[in-house]
Design brief:
The chain is of the alpha+beta class and 242 residues long. The protein has 2 domains: 1-77, Glutaredoxin; 79-242, Glutathione S-transferase Yfyf (Class Pi), Chain A, domain 2, CATH 1.20.1050.10. The protein is 59% helix and 7% strand. It has 10 helices and 4 strands. It has helices at 18-30, 62-73, 83-110, 112-117, 128-149, 156-174, 187-200, 207-213, 216-229, 235-241, and strands spanning 2-6, 34-38, 51-54, 57-60. The chain has a 4-stranded mixed sheet, with helices on one face. Helix 3 (83-110) crosses helix 5 and helix 7 (187-200) crosses helix 9. The radius of gyration is 18 Å and the shape is globular.
């Protein structure tokens, strides 16, 4: 059986990491049995989550995990799509992971209040005399990566404006369809769902969340995907209570 290593539930989400969410949903899409364990990035071969153990193989990075599933188990996540649609789905996935995701990072890690409410608690088990220093170091490293991504070079309102353009593109692509590319979910739906749910969680307040909520078809899409892939999770009631 496959073992998936992620952060686990938190921040009002069934899985904290958008990338671990992506992999977990793809495992569900492929109908593969798996177990899940909590882990930390240093335990991964690439220093990031998720990663999986599959018999004698360990595969890190959500994109390479997808390729492993497709290669070993013969499951094509984009089976219904034409060659052109596959190319479009890949382009949207890159936009989500290299643009929308970094906007999420800014809202979660760089925003002082959200960092204190959320990611700072990753270090609660660290010995007290080291805890604050490790929190500061981690936030600094993430903020530095946010700067390098490009979004962090702009004023807070400007980076949200840029992210909103990508959200608009996703909203237009989705339209009134049930999934991004049509009537059947594809691999990119797992990517989009992980990032959008991470933004929309009621646990964090942010201008990015407010702008995302303006795209009603995206919020409805996340609600549908959550019900489909995490039916036991009380997502809609959490959002309605926010």
């Amino acid at each position: 059986m496959i073992t998936l290593y992620g952060f686990g539930a938190g921040f009002g989400l069934p899985e904290i990491s958008p990338f671990a969410t992506k992999t977990e949903v793809q495992l569900k899409m492929a109908g593969l049995a798996y177990s899940k364990q909590k882990a930390t990035p240093p335990s991964s071969p690439k220093g990031q989550l998720p990663y999986i153990d599959d018999e004698t193989e360990t595969i890190a990075d959500s994109t390479f995990i997808r390729a492993h599933i497709e290669g070993k188990y013969g499951f094509d996540f984009d089976a219904p799509l034409s060659l052109q649609a596959r190319a479009q789905a890949w382009a949207f996935e890159r936009m989500i992971e290299h643009h929308v995701y970094w906007a999420l990072v800014g809202a979660r890690w760089v925003d002082t209040e959200n960092f204190a409410k959320g990611p700072s608690h990753f270090f609660d088990a660290v010995p007290e005399h080291q805890r604050e220093r490790m929190r500061e170091d981690a936030q600094f490293r993430v903020a530095e990566n946010y700067l390098l991504s490009g979004l962090g070079r702009h004023a807070p309102d400007e980076d949200v404006d840029l992210a909103a353009r990508s959200l608009f593109a996703l909203s237009v692509q989705l339209g009134d369809k049930p999934y991004l590319m049509g009537d059947t979910p594809c691999g990119t739906d797992a990517t989009a769902f992980g990032a959008l749910a991470g933004i929309l969680t009621p646990y964090f307040a942010s201008p990015l969340r407010e702008r995302t909520e303006q795209f009603e078809n995206l919020t409805a899409y996340v609600d549908r995907m959550m019900l489909q892939y995490y039916p036991e999770f009380a997502w809609v009631s959490l959002r309605e209570a926010a």
